[in-house]
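Continuing the batch. This is chain 6 of the set; chains 1 through 5 are on the previous pages. Same settings as before, nothing changed between runs. Recording input and output for traceability.
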Amino acid sequence: MDRTSQRTVEFRLRNSRRGLTLVETIVAMAIIGLLMAIIVPAVQAARTTSRRMQCQNNLRQITLAMNSYADSFGTLPQWAVPNNAFDISPNGYEGAFTAIFPYLDLPEKRDAIARGMTRIPVLECPADSDVGNSATPLSYRLNASPGPNSGYLTLGPFIAEFGRPPVRLRDVIDGTSQTACCSEGICLRLSNGNQSVAAASPSRYTWTVKIPPLDQNAATPLAALAVQTDLSINECLSDPRLSTDGGTQLSNASWQIANDYQTAYTHWFPPNAPFCRASNFNAIPIFLWDNHGAASAHDGGVNVSYLDGHVKFISQAIDRNVWRAVGTINGIETNTEGAY
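Output for chain 6:
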């Protein structure tokens, strides 16, 4: 090899080992940053959509199981029924969620407890990272509209009041495609009285409010109770509310327990409304004690299943009257898809 050729090879070798220039490095970093800015939100959005779809699938399975129960027994299950024939712990009640276990390929409640079952995926919303706050979490709630002490004669599909029989699907005169079956309930957190923390996510914490009192007796007209209901709701929705619960006990829903407070919701509060309790227990009726709305970890609304089996994502900005109509089986309201 002559000297000229040798120099050419050495020059090429030196240039082949040359690192990136500062400009090239900056350009490469800018491209990587741009790709990350595009990819990360897309991945997060895909995960959010996937969780919402899984939640909807859970609700769909639950609702179809409710329909299978109705096919077998002729009525929908009630949200809480004493069952003295079995030693069903911890509170001796059979609830609608556990009543449908056989239709979800799950053991009966008594057997599930005996086997030490705690976490049941179909009963948990994957979007709620706080489900672990309960040993036996339940992310879903039964439509118990209108709820105790609300002053309304219309019914929901899972009534549990003495003297009223369980609901048959043919009793749903509003139509099964227009009547809610189940929705979501968010797991609560402890604020220890810190209102600034609770204010960032009002539906995650328990608020205490003082509702306007109502002098009532057995003859109090339903109209007066209905007025009290709306006064209670408006007090809960007002901002600022009185205070957050400073206690140390959470009352998150458990599939093992069947009662209106933990396993049911009503349609009188809008979706994702704050969870309120009345501080003045002498205010009769204490509507806020036994009634709270649907709430979820999804942004902007909640998933709702209807008695015919379809599931929709309902905006928390839904009109209050339309939302209430969705909760009743016999209000004879007409709702259109465009209304919500």
